[in-house]
């Protein structure tokens, strides 16, 4: 099972807190992680092994979207900041649309991510 981790700058701390809170569950399910560049750097600080792609604004969201299309990514945790401006919003929308097209579970906040994790137990 591959889970993609993405968080806008205003949500990176929330992602780290989520990963720390659920570290045991995430380590016990033979899950591999991919992430956009900066989010991946933060996720690695929690002790998880993460394959990092480019930063979102530099194409990382598009790289994760490609993995969704290829059937490699099985779930996406994308903690979005709905109050911030994001110059790469077209890539964000593409990723969200492709998750819907390919029926990939997508959590845009910790509450939904927790529900998806409960499914893995």
Automatic annotation (TrEMBL):
Q: Which organism is it from?
A: Algoriella xinjiangensis
Care to name a GO molecular-function term for this sequence?
A: methylglyoxal synthase activity
A biological process (GO) of this protein is: methylglyoxal biosynthetic process
Report the EC code(s) recorded for this entry: 4.2.3.3
State what this protein does: Catalyzes the formation of methylglyoxal from dihydroxyacetone phosphate.
Entry binding sites for substrate: 8, 12, 36-39, 55-56, 88
> Could you name the Gene Ontology cellular component terms for this entry?
cytosol
Check the record and name the NCBIfam families matching this protein: MGSA, PRK05234.1
Give the matching InterPro entries. Answer: Methylgl_synth (IPR004363), Methylglyoxal_synth_AS (IPR018148), MGS-like_dom (IPR011607), MGS-like_dom_sf (IPR036914)
Query: Which reaction(s) does its UniProt entry say it catalyses?
Result: dihydroxyacetone phosphate = methylglyoxal + phosphate
MGS-like domain mapped to chain residues: 1-121
Report the family membership: Belongs to the methylglyoxal synthase family.
Keywords, alphabetical: Lyase
Under the heading SMART domains, the entry gives: MGS
Q: Which domain of life is it from?
A: Bacteria
Q: Which Gene3D superfamilies match?
A: Methylglyoxal synthase-like domain (3.40.50.1380)
Active site (catalytic residues): 61 (proton donor/acceptor)
The protein depicted here goes by the name: Methylglyoxal synthase
A Pfam family cross-referenced in the UniProt record is: MGS
Keyword DNA-binding assigned to the entry: answer is no
């Amino acid at each position: 099972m591959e889970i993609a981790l993405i968080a806008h700058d205003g949500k990176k701390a929330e992602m780290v807190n989520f990963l720390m809170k659920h570290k045991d569950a995430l380590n016990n399910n033979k899950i591999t992680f991919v992430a956009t560049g900066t989010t991946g750097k933060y996720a690695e600080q929690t002790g998880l092994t993460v394959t990092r792609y480019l930063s979102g604004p530099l194409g990382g969201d598009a790289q994760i979207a490609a993995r969704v299309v290829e059937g490699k990514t099985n779930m996406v945790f994308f903690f979005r900041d709905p109050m911030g401006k994001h110059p790469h919003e077209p890539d964000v929308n593409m990723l969200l649309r492709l998750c819907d097209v390919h029926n990939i579970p997508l959590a845009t906040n910790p509450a939904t991510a927790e529900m998806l994790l409960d499914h893995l137990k």
